[in-house]
Amino acid sequence: MSLQDPDCIFCKIIAGEIPCHKLYEDDHTFAFLDIGPLAKGHCLVIPKDHHATLATMPPELAGKCMETVTRLANAVMASLPGVDAYNVLQNNGEVAGQVVPHVHFHIIPRTEADGLGYRWNAGQLDADDAESLKSAIVDQLTG
Ligand code: AMP
Ligand code: ZN
Fold this sequence. Notes:
With 143 residues, the chain is α+β, with helices and mostly antiparallel strands. It contains three helices and five strands; from the N terminus they run H-E-E-E-H-E-E-H. It has a single domain (9-142), classed as 2-Layer Sandwich (HIT family, subunit A). It starts with 8 loop residues before the first helix and ends with a helix. Zinc ion (ZN) is lined by residues 5, 8, 10-11, 50, 102.
């Protein structure tokens, strides 16, 4: 049985209650053009089940989403002459820039001239921090 949130805009899109430019649909995933594109061809892949973030999503469903992302990204690239670069972006939580609380993967075509840029202020991994962090994460994974 599929999970749905009656107040969720993306659940409403899946249900056909809100229009969209649908690109793809299978048993578990759905894809459509982003209404506020950062670049031509910007589209979204979503699971049909409602999960606000990846935190509650079964890894198998995340895998199905990535299958769709891979196939759709190839189709988008093939549809945009001269474009062969793209970002896959997936925001979890407001602080991370998530606005719509239904898991979605952005496919954002990139060109030299798009002006989107990056704002990665890379730090330097501290060796002691890395060891304690590694232990904590591995404990969570294996505990
Ligand atoms: P995020 O900031 O990661 O939550 O991104 C949400 C994305 O959903 C934005 O890029 C919006 O432009 C897009 N979006 C919101 N409402 C719609 C809609 N009705 N149809 C298509 N895309 C939408
Ligand atoms: Zn939803």
